[in-house]
Design a protein that fits this description.
Layout: H1 11-25, H2 27-35, H3 46-57, H4 59-81, H5 90-93, H6 97-114, E1 119-125, E2 128-134, H7 142-145, H8 149-163, E3 171-174, E4 179-185
Antiparallel strand pairs: 1-2, 2-4, 3-4
């Protein structure tokens, strides 16, 4: 398989996305999926991949595949870019759990933004954090940009497991007029 098929993001993010999808789908099914993409487009994005997955597997299965791919992509991100994200710094490692989660969410948002994945905002709210992936970049419409939500949800699930040493922080997708809004609860399930 070609390691960098036509994705619009940076080479580092392209690699993570494709490795995550390969881990779940396998090389052969991913190659078939990429071949099914419209030939008139030179570069694809997660939204286009989600559409192809929906056509091949159905809506719920496509979302599940992207969640699993997002988890796998974050695991690889830790192996390759932990230092760049500041996750290896002693100051980060010694932060209080809630502060550590907020810093990790912001560092990931900043890194994804630098990789060309769009605009991200992280906000602290009463019971946790909000992660907003805005659609008002590159002239995208609401419908197209929110399709990347399952992948981002998977990345945030894996990030929260890692930051909290395996504890589960509920994350839910909320309707938002400006894009994909994910809410992460500060209190983990016990």
């Amino acid at each position: 398989m070609n390691p960098s098929p036509r994705l619009k993001y940076s080479p580092d993010l392209n690699s993570l996305i494709l490795e995550g999808l390969t881990e779940f789908l396998g090389d052969q099914k991913l190659e078939m999926l990429l071949q099914a993409m419209p030939a008139d487009r030179l570069r694809f994005d997660l939204e286009s991949l989600h559409e192809a997955l929906r056509a091949a597997y159905g809506s719920q299965s496509a979302a599940g595949i992207l969640v699993r791919a997002g988890r796998a992509a974050f695991a690889r991100l830790l192996l390759k870019f932990a230092a760049e994200l500041g996750f290896e710094d002693q100051g980060f490692r010694l932060l209080a759990p809630r502060r550590k989660m907020g810093v990790a969410l912001q560092n990931l948002a900043d890194w994804l933004q630098r990789q060309g994945a769009g605009r991200f905002e992280v906000r602290r709210v009463t019971n946790g954090w909000q992660w907003l992936h805005r659609v008002d970049f590159e002239g995208q419409t609401d419908n197209r940009a929110t399709m990347a939500c399952p992948f981002l949800l998977g990345m945030l699930q894996e990030l929260s497991y890692w930051v909290s040493s395996g504890r589960i922080h509920p994350i839910r997708e909320e309707a938002h007029s400006q894009g994909c809004l994910l809410e992460i609860e500060s209190k983990p399930l016990d």
